[in-house]
């Protein structure tokens, strides 16, 4: 047991708490911009990332229902906050708190893509969300995504929270995470 835990910890990438990971995609999820920290952490070059689908960094431990929810919200032009486990090119992983939002053309005001602003996920958020994600993934594997979605709904009902309330609560120690993400959003010019 200890050896397995130790080996898993060895594969985790420790993120700089003060550096954001930024990316922008088109409406289909193809990467159009990525900052240098994204390249460094993911292990992919800018050339490999640009034009690739953003799921190039998707970790197999992530339940599909989280991304289904994300796409549903973005298509309705609603932002979404999520704790996400990503995978680097060499197979290591890293946990991030991500604010996904729609980006509009500055003049025409039409949707033109999505912005993802990430920072290191708080340790307590990872501890809280990991059992939920494992359960959702188990349900998806054995019963399907609809059942996984139903489980998530029932879980949130028991918590007496919306998805947004749940995520903000687990990642937002005294508002610090949200202040950081919104501060990065204001600085992100393209």
> Tell me, what's the shape?
globular
CATH class call: Alpha Beta
What does the radius of gyration come to? 17 Å
Kindly report how far apart the N and C termini lie: 47 Å
In this structure, how is the largest beta sheet organized? 5 strands, antiparallel
Pfam family, one: PAS_3
Domain PAS: 15-77
Organism: Sulfurimonas marina
Protein name: PAS domain S-box protein
Structure notes:
The protein has about 190 residues and is of the alpha+beta class. It has a single domain, classed as 2-Layer Sandwich (Beta-Lactamase). About 45% of the residues lie in helices and about 20% in strands. Strands 2-1-5-4-3 form a five-stranded antiparallel β-sheet, with helices on both faces. Helix 5 packs across helix 6. The relative contact order is 0.15. InterPro entries: PAS, PAS-like_dom_sf, PAS_fold_3. Pfam families: PAS_3. This is PAS domain S-box protein.
Short description:
With 190 residues, this protein is of the alpha+beta class. It has helices at residues 2-10, 36-42, 46-49, 64-75, 123-142, 145-159, 163-171, 176-187, and strands at 21-25, 31-34, 80-87, 93-104, 111-120.
Key structural traits:
five-stranded antiparallel β-sheet; globular; Beta-Lactamase; 190 residues; alpha+beta
List the helices and strands and how they pair.
Elements: H1 2-10, E1 21-25, E2 31-34, H2 36-42, H3 46-49, H4 64-75, E3 80-87, E4 93-104, E5 111-120, H5 123-142, H6 145-159, H7 163-171, H8 176-187
Antiparallel strand pairs: 1-2, 1-5, 3-4, 4-5
Helix pairs in contact: 5-6
